[in-house]
Amino acid sequence: MSLKKENIHHNNYLYNFLKAYEQFAFRRFYKHMEAIGKENIPIGSPYIFAPNHQNALMDPLAVLATHSTPVIFFARADVFKKKWIAKILHIFKIKPIYRMRDGAAELHKNEGIFQAAVSVLQENAPMCVMAEGNHGDKRQLRKLVKGIFRIAFRTQELVPEGEGVKIVPVGLDYSEYTKFFQNLLVIYGPPIEVSEYIEAYKEDAPKGINALRERLATEMKKVMIHIQNDELYDMYQYLRELYNDRMRIKLSIVGKSLYEKFRADKQMIRILDEEFEVNPDKLRALSEKTLNYKAGLEKLNLRNWIFDRSGYTTKRLIYKRLGLYLSFPLFLLGYINNIIPYSLPLLTIPKIKDAQFHSSFKFALAFILFPVFYTLQAVLVGIFSGTWWIGLAYLIALPLFGYFALFWHIWHKRWRAGLKYRKLKKSRNKELLDLEKLHKEIVDTMNTIVSARI
User: Fold this and answer.
1) Are residues 68 and 187 in the same domain?
2) Domains held by the chain: number
3) What predicted TM-score, i.e. pTM, was given to this entire model?
4) Which of 93, 165, 247, 445 is 20 to 30 A removed from 353 (C-alpha atoms)?
5) List of the chain residues with pLDDT < 70
6) Which residue range forms the structural domain that includes residue 248?
7) Which candidate, 203, 160, 220, 432, places its Cα nearest to that of 310?
8) What crossing angle do the helices spanning 388-426 and 314-326 adopt, rounded to 10°?
9) C-alpha to C-alpha distance for 46 and 120, rounded to whole angstroms
């Protein structure tokens, strides 16, 4: 059955309800989430979103969560092997695209999918295609596959003269791929007019596709973190955490939004690339120090922020401990009422070999489990209390208790880290002193490199 016959691009009540719930839940799965450049979305024209693909099913859901109208997605076919997953994906308008690894006999199905995609695009229903074909585990753009360009050019040949198909590059930047309550930045870049390349495509299809592919790759790199230096990749990535605050100050970037941090990271990566071209040994030495510093932090179970702040004062540690002690009953209430739906998704993770699918499965299970458990708990409270409004009030309070328990846990971890740092500092712990020295050397080296190239 084609996409057209399924009317997959049409709204329905189930989809509208689930989309609204997905947007609500997705924004709460992440601690901070920003969507930048939505004014670049060419509403009223046929357009295709082209995000970078690093985090499995969370990538299309990120687009869905930040876009107001229904979006039709295409994903690799092996994700649809389990029938229950395929049904859920279908509800969210996600359809398969087959690759050679799925079997040569399956490739012919793509022709019908491409034809149907063209028909749907002609009705100005937006689509989202993962132009890299599959997901990767590094923050860099990989080679783009041909599917998105075949769909775009076929549609451009059929739309009325004067109208144009557009491809919108989308950058997705996750602070962590696999963990809950992290940061996510979504950037919509200026759309690319496929009509600019249609004549080249008509004259020589491969040449036209390659030209558009190069343009899209260039535009996607502008809206995403692209670390092309494979040799020093880990250093680049860790310096995003260690040096971002200082980089923003050097660039006179005011504020701490995810986009402002992204801008600073892009400039830092550019500067490091330039430095590597002329002085690779200096960066290799910096990389060794950075990775040793990171390993030392992990050994002491500390984080970089504790060095940037030089720990906590005794007075602040006492105040924090007192606040944790007084608020412990609220933490316990939130913990008890949320531990089952929170823990069950975590138990499935060891069975999933591909780490890039971890957050997808966590979100999918939490998407189902939390409302089910919350409803059961609220009904039981309403029954035992004999008053329906008490059950309703309990239902409303459950997520608030859960979030408080989560924040309490984070505050407690930071308090313990501050206390540990202070104890190690007081005892003149050699490992800590060595890390402080490494931290200063890394920062001083970066200050020299950056100052010379701003």
Assistant:
1) yes
2) 3
3) 0.92
4) 93
5) 1-11, 99-105, 350
6) 227-289
7) 432
8) 160
9) 9
